[in-house]
Specification:
Blueprint: H1 12-27, H2 33-47, E1 53-60, E2 63-71, E3 77-79, H3 83-91, E4 95-97, E5 115-123, E6 126-135, H4 143-156
Antiparallel strand pairs: 1-2, 1-6, 2-3, 4-5, 5-6
Helix pairs in contact: 1-2, 1-4
Bound molecules: methionine sulfoxide.
Length: 160
């Protein structure tokens, strides 16, 4: 149905521009939140190199609950005072963690994870979801990744 070409050694700005175009293409005209998160998780995995987990948590009754993802099975519920995801949801700020081993309260769903980027998705200043990316490499994510995923999160607030 969709066939996106990816070039993983392209500059990050180009990868994120292509990724956002692909996200728009798969969500266009579709209002089903689960379907959109599932397709976007697949695109994150396809476009971004060196990941071991990519997906969503949803805010449900003041805790985060696992949503569509690609990777190993993960913790289902995360309290807002726990983990990198909880910090992003609680503060509304993206969390860029170079070394998860030194992040207080990091939740190790996959022991291979060494760095993590979590970006909140919000509507009217209320966090509704977070996008979580994990990598087996230290310091895999930088400000360009944060900006790229933040742009995707801003777009997705109307689609998930
Ligand atoms: N490491 C996350 C938990 C979610 S998994 O990485 C998929 C955290 O500390 O919140």
């Amino acid at each position: 149905m969709f066939d996106f070409k990816t070039v993983s050694d392209a500059p990050k700005a180009q990868i994120y521009a292509d990724l956002l175009d692909a996200v728009k293409a798969v969500t266009h005209g579709e209002s089903d939140s689960t379907a959109n998160m599932a397709n976007v998780a697949a695109l994150l995995w396809q476009f971004l190199p060196d990941l071991n987990w990519a997906g969503f948590y949803r805010m449900v009754d003041d805790e985060l609950v696992l949503g569509p993802f690609v990777g190993k099975p993960a913790c289902i519920r995360i309290a807002l005072d726990k983990g990198v995801c909880g910090a992003a949801a609680r503060t509304g700020e993206a969390q860029l963690v170079d070394d998860v081993h030194v992040f207080p309260g990091h939740i190790a769903c996959d022991g291979d994870t060494r760095s993590e980027l979590v970006v909140p998705v919000g509507k009217n200043d209320i966090v509704t979801h977070v996008i979580d990316l994990d990598s087996p490499s230290l310091a895999r994510f930088d400000a360009k990744d944060r900006a790229g995923i933040t742009a995707i999160a801003a777009y997705l607030s109307d689609y998930i």
